[in-house]
């Protein structure tokens, strides 16, 4: 089976059209007409992940985060990022990324995060792509907890559920009881006003910028920032999806879930 056949099946569920404008989704490096043998599923494509793919004899790396957010202006192999590209090409590995299109997809990243948090009666947070059937897609989800919690108890719940060393909390009232929660995986600080308009009492998103935190406080919105790495939930979720496909079992394609911790941060 060609890698192209595998990707075509995925894109019927998560088309590239769902991605935010300018987001470099899709084929990153390699050849879609290569015969697929083994898939490595990862959040990030880092040198350690590429080494893992080589060790596991994987010839497709399927990632959430694109490997090439910014184009290389030279191929100086003393630069670690360029050396990684060279290793990918040298070992005939194809790299594919589903980023903001996976964030916006039904039963995609933000549904997985909302489910992990325990949100009920969820709806879309942001409006995005509309398909030919007039179905609206969009990033983020908003819903309700099964019971009210204080802001700090909710933050502790997030820390526990995602097995975090630490997280950041932005709040004027840490003991306020909340039940309506918005979540947007990754860097979603700039969308906090949309969360407010939808009635969110707490917003869960990563990489909140210092001055955005001030704006959130001024607006009265509590925010829990668990970091970007919670999106690693995509690894088991995507692997499970791929294993469920009949074409994968028919062609005896193996799926390997990356074991590399790509979180750059350590809490002390």
UniProtKB/TrEMBL annotation:
InterPro entries: DUF34/NIF3 (IPR002678), DUF34/NIF3_sf (IPR036069)
Residues involved in a divalent metal cation 2 binding: 64
GO molecular-function terms, A-Z: metal ion binding
Keyword annotations of the record: Metal-binding
Amino acids binding a divalent metal cation 1: 65, 103, 228, 231
UniProt superkingdom: Bacteria
Gene3D superfamilies noted in UniProt: NIF3 (NGG1p interacting factor 3)-like
Gene Ontology terms: cellular component: cytoplasm
Protein family (similarity comment): Belongs to the GTP cyclohydrolase I type 2/NIF3 family.
Quaternary structure annotation from Swiss-Prot or TrEMBL: Homohexamer.
Protein name, as recorded: GTP cyclohydrolase 1 type 2 homolog
Organism lineage: Bacteria, Bacillati, Bacillota, Bacilli, Lactobacillales
């Amino acid at each position: 089976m060609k890698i192209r056949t595998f990707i075509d099946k995925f894109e019927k569920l998560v088309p590239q059209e769902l991605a935010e404008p300018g987001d470099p989704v899709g084929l990153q490096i390699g050849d879609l007409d290569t015969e697929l043998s083994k898939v490595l599923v990862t959040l990030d494509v880092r040198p350690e992940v590429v080494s893992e793919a080589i060790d596991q004899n994987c010839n497709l790396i399927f990632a959430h985060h694109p490997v090439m957010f910014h184009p290389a202006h030279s191929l100086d192999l003393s630069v670690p990022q360029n050396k990684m590209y060279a290793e990918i090409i040298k070992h005939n590995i194809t790299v594919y990324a589903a980023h903001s299109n996976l964030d916006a997809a039904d039963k995609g990243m933000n549904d997985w995060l909302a489910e992990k948090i325990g949100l009920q009666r969820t709806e879309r947070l942001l409006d995005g792509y509309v398909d030919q059937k007039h179905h609206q897609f969009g990033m983020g989800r908003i819903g309700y907890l099964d019971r009210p919690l204080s802001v700090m108890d909710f933050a502790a719940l997030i820390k526990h559920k995602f097995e975090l060393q630490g997280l950041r909390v932005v709040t004027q009232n840490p003991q306020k009881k909340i039940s309506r929660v918005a979540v947007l995986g990754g860097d979603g600080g700039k969308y906090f006003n949309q969360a407010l308009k939808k009635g969110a009492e707490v917003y869960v998103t990563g990489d909140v910028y210092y001055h955005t935190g001030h704006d959130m406080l001024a607006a009265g919105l509590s925010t829990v920032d668990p970091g970007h790495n919670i999106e690693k939930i995509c690894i088991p979720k995507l692997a499970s999806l791929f294993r469920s496909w009949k074409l994968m079992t028919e062609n005896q394609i193996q799926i390997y879930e990356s074991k590399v911790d790509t979180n750059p941060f350590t809490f002390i």
